[in-house]
């Protein structure tokens, strides 16, 4: 069996390895000059930075086995320390009552608490429609916390009013499902330490897995194993078109004018909105134009500092609109040899869209603005700066606007008429998913192909509803 894999992120590499190990001919095509996608590690001047925290969490034994086999002693287990920057204070997360009482003004705390209780009681009697982020959050946490925290943070990350964002985004990002859950989990975690209150990706979990040197080490080992099993990687190959014979893809065309035909089946993790016009031509282009499926970009500022630490946390969230970034990850705390002794490295995330003001701001200005902001908060001093790099990614998050599910569903359904095409991955399914889910999808798709199916489709119901909870399920076609 011969498979063309489009996109060399975690999904593409894992698919490739699973296929190559079973003797399939696997050719992977990646548009950039290196593999890894979002789960890569950027290395500079002895420092290493991931594109955001990239904690690895899974309970899937097959996945744990693969990661242990690939990383061996390079696989680390890390005890998590995270915080929220709230009204000038770093509050430990999951919240601790004593911490809150000590740091948050009494009046604000009381108002938030009574608001939560009011929302909880009201929603017990009157359940309104909770289609969007705002109504979902207010029904569980009340107006005070929405106005002070959830609203501003959401606007920053997604670049839209929370009323335009689908409620599923809130359900996926906010661990607690209700005010009662929040109380139960907070108290349960700190007093009872009940493991059964934990979700796979919940911040209430105490530990996560990681790779020495950065999450990119996992990609490195995957890539090496893929190549060792006879796989081929073609870098600098941006897929721009496809040739069809009857209902199957017969050729893949690249930006450099070259074409690849030596395959039976295509697995694609390139963005869904790019794939559909390539596979379905003008009809596909019209379908995409009519739907609202935007991706959110990100500017990452990687700051190298000559001080042992900025804060004591692995990562901190910053909801305030006047702070230019929404999260800072400090990799020297990952105990993974990611910063020279006595120094620390920070990865700052600034959500943006290609072409907007942040995107067009020069690297020097962006770096300076971030340094000023951190200095103002007392987390560093300007003289600590050794240097910084800025990297922009156009596809960091699929934006789950209200109605996204129906729109993405329509595109994925339309693609089913192509008999040898399997869309997968975060971009490929327009799914706000984590690394473990990407790898699980890769397992499922490669297994279906090895069993002789022409294509595999990740079950969409599971995809939308099961974020963080359910394993991916396959619907198969062909034979
Ligand atoms: C800020 C941030 C923090 C995160 N933190 C975590 C975390 O803590 N834990 C966790 O589990 N997950 C985390 N994730 C999610 C994780 O990074 C992704 O789920 C995963 O890396 C997606 O892998 P992928 O291969 O599906 O997609 P991608 O990594 O996006 O890979 C797609 C690849 O396709 C290539 N490509 C695109 N278009 C074309 C084309 N036309 N032709 C050829 N190649 C193309 C791209 O260059 C890219 O390499 C985070 C993501 C972000 C953005």
Keywords, separated by commas or semicolons:
disordered C terminus, 5-stranded parallel sheet, 24% strand, globular, alpha/beta, FAD/NAD(P)-binding domain, Polyamine Oxidase, Chain A, domain 2, binds flavin-adenine dinucleotide
Identify the overall geometry: globular
Number of strands: 21
User: What's the N-to-C terminus distance?
Assistant: 12 Å
β-strand percent reads 15-25%
Regions with pLDDT < 50 over 5+ consecutive residues?
187-200, 460-479
The CATH class of the largest domain, by name, is Alpha Beta
| Biggest sheet descriptor | 7 strands, mixed
Fraction of residues in H or I helices? 25-40%
Radius of gyration: 23 Å
Summarize the structure in words.
There is one protein chain. The chain has 3 domains: 2-39 and 59-75 and 211-293 and 402-477, FAD/NAD(P)-binding domain; 82-205, no CATH class; 295-398, Polyamine Oxidase, Chain A, domain 2, CATH 3.90.660. A hairpin with a 2-residue loop joins strand 10 (239-245) and strand 11. The protein has a 7-stranded mixed sheet with strand order 7-6-15-16-17-14-18. A 5-stranded parallel sheet has the order 9-2-1-13-19, covered by helices on one side. It has 479 residues and is α/β, with parallel strands linked by helices. Mean pLDDT is 88; it is low at 187-200 and 460-479. It has helices at residues 10-21, 61-71, 97-103, 106-125, 133-158, 167-173, 179-192, 216-228, 272-290, 357-360, 363-376, 404-415, 425-428, 435-450, 460-465, and strands spanning 2-6, 25-29, 41-44, 47-50, 75-79, 82-86, 89-93, 207-211, 232-234, 239-245, 248-254, 259-260, 265-268, 295-305, 315-317, 327-330, 344-352, 385-398, 421-423, 455-458, 474-477. It contains 15 helices and 21 strands. It starts with a strand and ends with a strand. The chain binds flavin-adenine dinucleotide. Flavin-adenine dinucleotide binds at residues 6-12, 29-32, 37-39, 51-56, 238-239, 269-271, 274, 298, 349, 395-396, 425-427, 433-436, 438.
């Amino acid at each position: 069996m011969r498979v063309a894999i489009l996109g060399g992120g975690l999904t593409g590499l894992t698919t490739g390895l699973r296929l190559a190990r079973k003797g399939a001919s696997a050719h992977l095509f990646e548009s950039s000059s290196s593999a890894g996608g979002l789960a890569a590690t950027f290395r500079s001047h002895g420092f290493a930075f991931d594109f955001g925290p990239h904690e690895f969490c899974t309970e899937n034994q097959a996945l744990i086995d693969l990661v242990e086999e690939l990383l061996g002693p390079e696989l680390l287990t890390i005890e998590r320390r995270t915080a929220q920057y709230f009204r000038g204070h770093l509050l430990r997360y999951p919240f601790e009552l004593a911490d809150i009482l000590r740091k948050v003004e009494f009046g604000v705390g009381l108002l938030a608490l009574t608001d939560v209780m009011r929302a909880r009681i009201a929603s017990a009697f009157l359940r309104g429609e909770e289609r969007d982020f705002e109504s979902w959050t207010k029904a569980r946490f009340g107006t005070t916390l929405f106005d002070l925290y959830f609203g501003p943070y959401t606007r920053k990350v997604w670049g839209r009013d929370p009323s335009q964002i689908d409620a599923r985004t809130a359900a996926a990002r906010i661990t607690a499902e209700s005010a009662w859950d929040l109380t139960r989990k907070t108290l349960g975690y700190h007093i009872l330490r009940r493991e059964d209150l934990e979700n796979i990706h919940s911040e209430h979990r105490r530990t996560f897995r990681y790779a020495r040197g950065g999450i990119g080490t996992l990609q490195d080992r995957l890539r090496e194993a893929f190549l060792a099993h006879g796989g081929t990687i073609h870098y600098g190959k941006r897929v721009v078109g496809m040739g069809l014979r009857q209902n199957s893809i017969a050729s893949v065309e690249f930006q450099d004018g070259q074409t690849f035909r030596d395959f039976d089946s295509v697995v694609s993790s390139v963005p869904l909105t790019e794939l559909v016009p390539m596979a379905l031509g003008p009809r596909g282009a019209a379908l995409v134009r009519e739907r609202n499926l935007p991706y959110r970009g990100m500017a990452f500022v990687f700051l190298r500092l000559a001080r042992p630490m900025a804060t004591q946390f692995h990562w901190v969230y910053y909801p305030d609109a006047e702070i230019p970034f929404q999260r800072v990850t400090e990799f020297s705390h990952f105990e993974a040899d990611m910063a020279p002794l006595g120094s620390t490295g920070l990865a700052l995330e600034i959500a943006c869209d290609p072409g907007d003001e942040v995107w067009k701001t020069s690297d020097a200005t962006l770096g300076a603005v971030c340094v000023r902001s951190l200095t103002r908060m007392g987390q560093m001093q300007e003289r600590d700066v050794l240097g910084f790099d800025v990297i922009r990614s156009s596809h960091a998050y699929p934006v789950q606007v209200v109605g996204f599910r129906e729109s993405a569903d329509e595109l994925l359904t339309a693609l089913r008429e192509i008999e040898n095409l399997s869309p997968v991955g975060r971009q490929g399914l327009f799914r706000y998913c984590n690394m473990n889910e990407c790898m699980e999808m890769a397992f499922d798709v490669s297994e279906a192909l090895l069993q002789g199916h022409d294509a595999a489709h990740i079950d969409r119901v599971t995809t939308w509803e099961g974020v963080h909870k359910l394993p991916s399920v396959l619907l198969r076609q062909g034979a």
